[in-house]
Amino acid sequence: MSFEIVTVPCREDNYAYLVHADGKTALVDAPETAPLKKALADRGWSLDEIWITHHHDDHTIAVADLRSGAVVRGAKADEYRLPELDVAHEDEDTFEFAGREVSVVDVSGHTVGHIAFYMAAEKAAFTADSLMALGCGRVFEGTFDQMWASLSKLAALPSETMIYSGHEYTAANGRFAATIEPENPELKARLERVAAARATGQATVPSQLSEELATNPFLRAGLASVKSSLNMPDANDAEVFAEIRRRKDSF
């Protein structure tokens, strides 16, 4: 049984993903028509499904150009502002794609109604602008508590899960992460790998959840060492996360 995930760079810094299994192809988010059509044509694939994570234009704008004959899935909570959906999902829904189970996870915070798609057997989570490589999305619509709860859901997935996020922000996220944990040896090593990858134009996503847990400050807000470095030893985890996110917003 074949299974492949193709990372497709779009726009200036977006990523979309083609999930190809046993002759069927799904697209996760649709930031730009031309590179996605080319990626499909180069492989002789046609779209069977489109999975939308949230309503922002840089994740939806190419749906109209690409949807011909494809089943479009997205969040029921976001349906009023998404391209027309064929299937509207709620948190904890599951569906089958090419004989494989896909779970829908509400990860609101960046937007309300943002969802992730998780394929447990394939060890893949498509998180878009919730959990990102060395970072997380800005909290535009939800609350800090809501975003922390969403990240905590994702952090609880098996550590070998690969995180397929929506943007090439890793280098900038890493520069900020170093202000929170400047002596973290795993972070230092990761920043060197990121710099080398970007110097040759390589993508820094997907990333493994274990690596995020070891280096991503937004997942590490519950650690005593991080709380101490922020002079917040008695704060709860969500409060520490909120402080880290506020610092990143003005970084």
**Counted beta strands:** 14
> What fold name goes in the CATH topology slot?
Metallo-beta-lactamase, Chain A
* CATH architecture annotation: 4-Layer Sandwich
Q: What proportion of the residues is helical, as a percent range?
A: 25-40%
Described by strand count, sense and barrel closure, the largest sheet is: 6 strands, mixed
Q: What spatial order of strands do you see in the largest sheet?
A: 1-2-3-4-5-6
Overall, the morphology is globular
Describe the structure using short key phrases:
alpha/beta, 9 helices, 33% helix, 14 strands, single chain, Metallo-beta-lactamase, Chain A, six-stranded mixed beta sheet, 251 residues, globular
Please describe the topology of this protein.
Elements: E1 3-10, E2 14-21, E3 24-28, H1 33-43, E4 49-51, H2 57-60, H3 63-66, E5 71-75, E6 87-89, E7 94-97, E8 100-106, E9 115-119, E10 124-128, E11 131-132, E12 135-136, H4 144-155, E13 162-165, H5 170-180, H6 185-199, E14 207-208, H7 209-215, H8 224-229, H9 237-249
Parallel strand pairs: 3-4, 4-5, 5-6, 10-13
Antiparallel strand pairs: 1-2, 2-3, 7-8, 8-9, 9-10, 11-12, 13-14
